[in-house]
Design a protein that fits this description.
This protein is α+β, with helices and mostly antiparallel strands. Bound molecules: (3R)-3-hydroxy-3-methyl-5-(phosphonooxy)pentanoic acid. The site of (3R)-3-hydroxy-3-methyl-5-(phosphonooxy)pentanoic acid (PMV) has 14 residues, from α2 and α4.
Length: 352
């Protein structure tokens, strides 16, 4: 008889930080220099779909990953750390119960697909590692909670730990050397503030110039502003942001979001030599958001930028016409250079 193939599938959402993770205190374990907070976007729009399988009949003895149809390198230390952690948890279950099949000894095949451009600064690594970890955890029937799985996903890509939850999610930096307290924590379910929307403006779907790992390393090593960011700016922003989310205070949510994005990009500009993720097109989007808020007489839109030129604009459903309508009107004129793309549309915030 042919050996059984064991299989499990899952999806994981993209998250976009409103208080940014930027800086590692331990590069091997992906431990951050500061806590961060993100909003999880709807899986209907942006998500990774991953299937994990294993079988003693698989001819290749090595684990493998197919990403968007092409074989992908999994020999990197971070991916290996995820596989190792998942296997060791499965081994523990098998050691405690001899009737369980020995899945931990079988090669793993992972097949993963994004429905958006990979590595374009659209947080593909976050959804990717979160989906990989959850798919294998499901395959191995691990009893671990989302917070426990976030510890494993964090080792793949820091921001991935936040994609184990929907809604408003904090990554608590922790202070333990082994990283056992550096994990994701649900601040509020998406249903707490379901009017939140995000508009994604794709300036470029090309791969980003300076990887987040390298950018963080250079910033930590050379920026003077960075020290103030991690000791003063971020702790204050985390406190204000959690309060804004709890109180559903959009004006405060928006101000902290924009200030924190500006602060993060300022530390990049203060890096020596400087790193520029935002470009002229990005800055045009900042001005458009300022105009929208001026015209409304209150803050109804907030921009934020990750390690690339693309812009995410947060707003509330009631202001959709004013925000999205205005953006589409200026697309191609004042906000020249923005490409209308599959990802450039309003998306709901997901509930897991
Ligand atoms: O998880 P990484 O290593 O891709 O780093 C993500 C860094 C930012 O996207 C810029 C900020 C964040 O908190 O997601």
């Amino acid at each position: 008889a042919e050996a059984k193939v064991y299989r499990a599938s899952t999806t994981a959402p993209v998250n976009i930080a409103v208080v940014k993770y930027w800086g590692k205190r331990d590069a091997k374990l992906n431990l951050p220099t500061n806590s961060s907070l993100s909003v999880t976007l709807s899986q209907a729009d942006l998500r990774t779909l991953t299937t994990a399988s294993c079988s003693s009949s698989y001819s290749a003895t090595e684990d493998s990953l197919i990403l968007n149809g092409s074989p992908s390198d999994i020999t990197g230390a971070r991916t290996q750390a995820c596989f190792r952690a998942l296997r060791s948890r499965r081994s523990a279950l098998e050691a405690a119960d001899a009737s369980l099949p020995k899945l931990s000894a079988m090669p793993l095949r992972i097949v993963s697909e994004n429905n958006f451009p990979t590595a374009a600064g659209l947080a593909s690594s976050a959804a990717g590692f979160a989906a990989l970890v959850r798919a294998v955890a499901n395959l191995y029937e691990l009893p671990d909670s989302p917070a426990e799985l976030s510890l494993i996903a964090r080792q793949g890509s820091g921001s991935a730990c936040r994609s184990l939850f929907g809604g408003y999610v904090a990554w608590r930096m922790g202070d333990k050397e082994d990283g056992s307290d550096s994990l994701a924590d649900l601040v509020a379910e998406a249903s707490h503030w379901p009017e939140m929307r995000a508009l994604i403006l794709v300036a470029s779907a090309a791969k980003k110039g300076v990887s987040s790992t390298s950018g963080m390393q250079q910033t930590v090593a050379t920026s003077g502003l960075f020290k103030q960011r991690i000791t003063e700016v971020v702790p204050k922003n985390m406190e204000l942001m959690e309060k804004a989310v709890q109180a559903k205070d959009f004006a405060s949510f928006a101000e902290v979001t924009m200030r924190d994005s500006n602060s993060f990009h300022a530390t990049c500009a203060d890096t020596y030599p400087p790193i520029f993720y935002m470009n002229d097109v990005s800055r045009a989007a900042v001005r458009a958001v300022e105009k929208i808020n001026e015209a409304a007489g209150q803050t109804i839109a907030a921009y934020t930028f990750d390690a690339g030129p693309n812009c995410v604009v947060y707003y509330l459903e009631k202001d959709e016409a004013a925000v999205v309508g205005t953006f589409y009107k200026v697309l191609g004129s004042e906000v020249g250079g923005w490409k209308e793309s599959a990802a450039a549309h309003a998306t709901d915030i997901s509930v897991e």
